[in-house]
Design brief:
Blueprint: H1 10-52
Length: about 55
């Protein structure tokens, strides 16, 4: 027979999934910012290279 009352792990699972989504979103944002910084550096380097030619 199933236990009566509140389900055992639902609160912990909800908190865990919330925290994991925050972590995943943070990593995605950091990767996006890193890519943008690299693109800016490459664009600047190419502009300097064109000026020298």
């Amino acid at each position: 027979m199933p236990k009566k009352g509140k389900a055992k792990n639902t609160l912990n699972k909800a908190k865990h999934s919330k925290l994991m989504q925050q972590k995943i979103n943070k990593i995605k944002l950091e990767k996006k910012l890193h890519k943008e910084k690299l693109k800016a550096i490459i664009k600047k380097a190419n502009a300097i290279k064109k000026e020298q030619e």
